[in-house]
């Protein structure tokens, strides 16, 4: 297996065991990037000089017999809304392009570097994270490594595509309404959206305070757990990956989470349920209203955040972003208060389900990756707009901050992602389920064949 | 320079368009004329979602969760 195909856990083990140097690992990934990055457009900034210095520091620690950290020599990259020392944090925008460079790394990035990771650069995204396709009007379109005619998903599209392409073993993204789970699903990799509030958001450009989450992408559950364990201090998942999930406490979400889904997506959910031995089906009530409330709060809080620039520079926004922010900011307060009241009610409905179940399953997207530029999609003979509807099944879940692992289901064809959803604070259960599915061969994320 | 204003006769506009123009003035958040149609279309989509929330029979005792702890 070539170095760029190795998991983060295996790379760190090889580096720590002096079987390969961090410099060699880095060189293999840079070579892969230079060969194919023009085809996919994942990176908006590269930090290769910094990466070489970080790899050299890891190798020096190994040579000296010091502990180089659990992610020794692992190549990583971050969505360009994370502060990276020396780079402007532009969040996919033109508006922020002339802002001063960040003085420090975001704390969550600093943790990864201190654990031995090596930063390759910053990654493309939908402007200000308000989108599901990473067709960025300023920076260009990130293409899906499994079919370059198709979108990578968004808003963390560069982060997902970079891992799927073998450019980096781990990347970071953000998820407000599905922006980790959705591109992970469309690019055929694993993504973790932790519980709301679990990961420190300092040093990341915000979008919607009520729903913003940060999390990792990787090509396996063990890599997600390794990144997650480094990114926060209140939980530890790596040691819990072998825990068995009780099949009687796993259920497929029905009604809203099946309506409008393409048959191959429902088949993917069925495969995951079978892999976990689950037969139960349950309803999360009023998920349609939850999606509506998430939609309105997102537009409102996002619009409020951007009022200064919407007044002064509306023409400098991506045409796909500005009208929604402006309209969102002008919503009646009554809508937002009612949406936040509904949120409290909906949380209780989910809590009642988690008294009976540990894991809930739902598709990550209603369909496989749409074509770049595609405006509408036809599902069950119903034509619907692509951009707002890709997140139908992710929005009700992030609305109440539940932890989710998006898993890539095997079976040929374009990638299909399934959400493995756990109760608040129980990331370990979702990661253990993902690890079990991986061992059973139900889910897998091989590096995309780009040649 | 982007022009912003209420150049259309208010009676020729839909209630949503009249609301948007009024809210824009009251909240000092101008909508440039050149973008008004796109903003109005976005507001229509948001309003359809808001109607779903409004139509849901929420118990009166439920309090808002603006700072959410799951």
Distance between the termini of chain A: 16 Å
Report the principal-axis shape of chain A: globular
Helical content of chain A (DSSP H or I, runs of 4+): 25-40%
Percent of residues in helices of chain B: 40-55%
Strand content of chain A: 15-25%
Average pLDDT number of chain B = 86
Oligomer: heterodimer
Largest interface comes to: A-B, 46 and 35 residues
What would you report as the Rg of chain B, rounded to the nearest angstrom? 16 Å
Main sheet of chain B? none
**Biggest β-sheet: strands ordered side by side in the sheet of chain A:** 1-3-2-8-10-9-16-17-13-11-12
Alpha-beta content class of chain B: mainly alpha
Helix/strand class of chain A: alpha+beta
Total beta strand runs of chain B = 0
The poorly predicted ranges of chain B are none
- How widely separated are the two ends of chain B? 46 Å
What does the model show?
The complex is a heterodimer of chains A (451) and B (70). By secondary structure, chain A is of the alpha+beta class. Chain A has helices spanning 8-16, 22-40, 48-64, 107-114, 157-164, 181-187, 221-231, 263-275, 287-305, 307-312, 322-329, 333-356, 386-389, 395-398, 427-439, and strands at residues 43-46, 75-79, 118-123, 135-136, 140-141, 143-144, 147-151, 170-175, 190-193, 213-218, 250-253, 280-282, 359-363, 376-379, 382-385, 404-409, 416-422. In chain A, strands 1-3-2-8-10-9-16-17-13-11-12 form an eleven-stranded mixed beta sheet, sandwiched between helices. In chain A, strands 4-5 form a two-stranded antiparallel ribbon. A two-stranded antiparallel ribbon of chain A has the order 6-7. In chain A, helix 7 (221-231) packs antiparallel against helix 15 (427-439), helix 9 (287-305) crosses helix 11 and helix 9 (287-305) packs across helix 12 (333-356). The longest helix of chain A is centred in the last third of the chain and has 24 residues, at 333-356. Chain B is an all-alpha fold and 70 residues long. Helix content of chain B is 44%, strand content 0%. Chain B has helices at residues 15-26, 36-54. Chain B is elongated and about 40 Å long. The relative contact order of chain B is 0.13. Chain A binds chain B through residues 195-197, 210, 286, 288-289, 291-293, 295-296, 299, 307, 310-311, 314-315, 319, 322-324, 326-332, 335, 337-345, 347, 388, 400-402, 424-425, and chain B through 2, 20, 23-24, 27-32, 35, 38-43, 45-46, 49-50, 52-54, 56, 58-59, 62-66, 68-70.
């Amino acid at each position: 297996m070539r170095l760029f195909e190795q998991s983060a856990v295996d790379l760190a083990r090889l580096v720590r065991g002096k079987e390969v140097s961090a410099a060699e690992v880095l060189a293999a990934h840079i070579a892969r990037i230079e060969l194919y990055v023009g085809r996919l457009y994942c990176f908006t900034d590269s930090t290769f000089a910094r990466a070489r210095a970080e790899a050299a520091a890891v190798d020096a620690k190994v040579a000296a017999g010091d502990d180089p950290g659990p992610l020794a020599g692992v190549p990583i990259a971050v969505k360009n809304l994370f502060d990276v020392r020396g780079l402007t944090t532009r969040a996919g925008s033109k508006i922020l392009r002339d802002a001063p460079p960040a003085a420090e790394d975001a704390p969550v990035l600093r943790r990864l570097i201190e654990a031995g990771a090596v930063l390759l650069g910053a990654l493309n995204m939908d402007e200000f994270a308000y989108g599901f396709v990473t067709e960025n009007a300023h920076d260009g379109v990130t293409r899906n490594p499994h079919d370059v005619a198709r979108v990578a998903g968004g808003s963390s599209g560069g982060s997902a595509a970079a891992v799927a392409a073998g450019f980096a073993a781990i990347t970071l993204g953000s998820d407000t309404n599905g922006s980790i789970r959705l591109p992970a699903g469309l690019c055929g990799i694993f993504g973790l959206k932790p519980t709301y509030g679990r990961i420190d958001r300092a040093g990341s450009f915000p979008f919607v305070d009520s729903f913003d989450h940060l999390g990792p992408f990787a090509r396996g559950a063990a890599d997600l757990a390794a990144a997650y364990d480094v990114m926060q201090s209140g939980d530890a998942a790596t040691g819990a990956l072998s825990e068995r999930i009780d099949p009687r406490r796993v259920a497929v979400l029905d009604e809203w989470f099946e309506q409008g889904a393409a048959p191959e997506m429902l088949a993917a959910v069925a495969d995951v349920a079978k892999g976990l031995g689950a037969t139960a089906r349950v309803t999360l009530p009023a998920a349609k209203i939850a999606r509506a409330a998430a939609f309105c709060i997102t537009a409102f809080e996002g619009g409020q955040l951007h009022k200064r620039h919407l007044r002064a520079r509306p023409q400098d926004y991506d045409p796909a972003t500005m009208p929604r922010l402006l309209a969102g900011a002008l919503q009646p307060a009554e809508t937002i208060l009612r949406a936040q009241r509904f949120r409290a009610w909906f949380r209780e409905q989910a809590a009642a389900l988690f008294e009976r179940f540990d894991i809930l399953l739902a598709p990550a997207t209603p369909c496989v990756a749409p074509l770049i530029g595609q405006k509408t999609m036809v599902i069950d003979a119903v034509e619907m707009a692509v951009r707002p509807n890709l997140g139908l099944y992710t929005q009700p879940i992030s609305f109440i901050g539940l932890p989710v692992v998006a898993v890539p289901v095997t079976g040929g064809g374009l990638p299909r992602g399934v959400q493995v959803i756990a109760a608040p604070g129980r990331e370990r259960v979702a990661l253990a389920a993902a690890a079990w599915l991986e061992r059973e061969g139900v889910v897998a994320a091989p590096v995309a064949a780009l040649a | 320079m982007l022009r912003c204003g209420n150049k259309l006769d208010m009676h020729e506009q839909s209630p949503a368009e009249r609301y948007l123009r009024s809210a824009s003035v009251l909240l000092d958040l101008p909508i440039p004329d050149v973008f008004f149609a796109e903003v109005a279309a976005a507001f229509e989509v948001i309003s359809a979602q808001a109607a779903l929330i409004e139509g849901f029979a929420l118990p009166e005792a439920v309090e808002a969760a603006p700072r959410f702890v799951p």
